[in-house]
Amino acid sequence: MRIRYSQWTPQSMTDEQRLQSLTSLFSYLLVKTSGDVNEALEWLREVAKQYGLFDENMTLDDLIEKLKEMGIIEEAKDMFVLTTKGVQRIRQDALREIFTSLKKAPSGSHETPYTGKGVDRLSETKKWSFGDQPTDLDLTSTLTNSFKRDGIDDFSLKEEDLEVYETEHMTTCATVLMVDISHSMILYGEDRITPAKQVALALSELISTKFPKDYLSLVVFGDDAKVVSMSELPFLNVGPYHTNTRAGLQLARSLLRRRGNVNKQIFMVTDGKPSAIFDDAGRLYKNSFGLDPRIVNKTLDEAVQCRREKIVVSTFMVAQDPYLINYVEDFTKANQGRAYYSSLNNLGKFIFVDYLRNRRKRMNSRQ
Questions:
Q1: pTM
Q2: I want to staple 346 with a disulfide (CB 3.0 to 4.6 A). Which of 207, 251, 286, 342 is the partner?
Q3: Can you tell me the distance from the alpha carbon of 265 to that of 314, in angstroms, rounded to the nearest whole number?
């Protein structure tokens, strides 16, 4: 057997790094093909031909075997399908990709400027009170208080001697992520749904790993709105729908109303104006031309209702038409929320920076 060696360069990857890179690319293609493993592999084959991703040391067949060994895909009825572990891997890869631009973002649980019953121990201490955890007892300060009172030779311990460490108060948040699945998300050949799905996948992985006590629900909206589980997200498709933003907000409010969390928020990812609502008789009224005052006013009413229920809406617009920006500004003012106008590449960054900072900002300012 002949072994061929190439010159080492600082950009050279180890076999493990190369496998990681190819697996991440495969994960992205799975999101783009709505979870179709066989189509994703065909796309990977074409990309590999163009960019020379494979060689005799790593072929596409070798990668497929590795993906099977890792439990990401499996064979069923002469075709490959995605496993539960594969869905989790997609979420992890999406999180890793988006967070490459967030090295300076806050990490850990959601801190507030208040002390209280929490997890992280602070350097400050306070007098013990009923309900404080024995594990938070500051032994040095407690003994010092006792010695100051009676001296070392006549040691006794009283309740007023006890001091405990302050702990940083941790807060939880209930979040609904709204994703626009109207036809405009793939209109004119521009793929806007793939990065939107990547954001949703990454956000779900973030919450499940770093904020396990937080609540997250995913709502998709087109002509109507519905709840979608995170396991279905990679398989999500855009449909021939209009944009019923009002229905999405109504469903999101209903979900958040059931939660006991103090902090409630909606992240809405959309690229277009509201173009549909249900009338009082339950019929779908739609208008794709311009901003229909009837549709806009009902949608703005929902923004106000969210504000009254102390739900902050963060709108992430991937379109930057002037008349759409004016509408979003009106919506944001009505809700007293936030609005971001970004390219598709920056969509994930804005969402995660806002999510990680949200509790601290909210606790420091009245909204």
A1: 0.70
A2: 342
A3: 8
